[in-house]
Amino acid sequence: MLTKRIIPCLDIKNGRTVKGVNFVDLRDAGDPVELAAAYAEKGADELVFLDISATEEKRKTLAKLVLDVAEQLNIPFTVGGGISSVEDVDILLKNGADKVSINSSAVKNPDLINQLSDKFGSQCVVVAIDAKNIDGKWKVHLVGGKVPTNLDLFEWAKEVEQRGAGEILFTSMDHDGTKNGFANEALARLSEELNIPIIASGGAGNIQHFQDTFQKGKADAALAASVFHFKEIEILQLKKELKSAGIPMRV
């Protein structure tokens, strides 16, 4: 059985790591380069680095910051935010990223998924999906959750897989920052309907929530931010407890 992964997420705005609740009310969480180095040392399996205002502000991801972060790491590193072309990805991979995450640009130009997968390999391409449960249906949202669409989460996820994405990073906007647990029902359905790894995001508040998302949500990886940034959960302790609960972990 493949080991499950624990992934801290660094949401970047104006060169600083920030964290909010339900995608708003952002507060400062520290220097991204220092945090990245600390997480690599403390047992994180991977890191995700999202320039959260890049799409909204219509600018590219901070390539220089990617370079600075990559120099501190010996673990896989995914970068997202403002990526809309093969050229954007080429720069980020050359600056040290292992994978890229695309979200709004994938919805606006689904063929971009095919292009990136063909050029760099599917293992490089993570499609992030932010969705909200509206009247019992999960609807995809764009631009950091600010723009609703009529796209259904599960239909879009299947298309994303068919187009060559290597992983899906699913964030439940309803759960984001609430620390009430992950959207395990939706995660389990994604895992059952797709053949690529699913990263759970949104809602981590305690160790039990991680256990639940691996056991009930069938997630392949769990991503979190504030519980790690503000040292509410230590990664090594989390992984040890999950391993003792029978979840395959690299400790």
UniProtKB/TrEMBL annotation:
Highest taxon of the lineage: Bacteria
Keywords: Amino-acid biosynthesis, Cytoplasm, Histidine biosynthesis, Lyase
GO biological process: one example: L-histidine biosynthetic process
Keyword flag Membrane: no
Record keyword Amino-acid biosynthesis present: yes
GO molecular function terms noted in the UniProt entry: imidazoleglycerol-phosphate synthase activity; lyase activity
Catalytic reaction(s) noted: 5-[(5-phospho-1-deoxy-D-ribulos-1-ylimino)methylamino]-1-(5-phospho-beta-D-ribosyl)imidazole-4-carboxamide + L-glutamine = D-erythro-1-(imidazol-4-yl)glycerol 3-phosphate + 5-amino-1-(5-phospho-beta-D-ribosyl)imidazole-4-carboxamide + L-glutamate + H(+)
Pathway linked to the protein: Amino-acid biosynthesis; L-histidine biosynthesis; L-histidine from 5-phospho-alpha-D-ribose 1-diphosphate: step 5/9
Catalytic residue positions: D11, D130
EC number per UniProt: 4.3.2.10
This protein's GO CC annotations: cytoplasm
Subcellular location: Cytoplasm
Main location: cytoplasm
HAMAP family: HisF (MF_01013)
NCBIfam families referenced in this protein's UniProt entry, alphabetically: hisF
Functional summary from the UniProt entry: IGPS catalyzes the conversion of PRFAR and glutamine to IGP, AICAR and glutamate. The HisF subunit catalyzes the cyclization activity that produces IGP and AICAR from PRFAR using the ammonia provided by the HisH subunit.
Subunit and partners: Heterodimer of HisH and HisF.
Similarity section: Belongs to the HisA/HisF family.
Name of the protein in question: Imidazole glycerol phosphate synthase subunit HisF
Organism: Christiangramia gaetbulicola
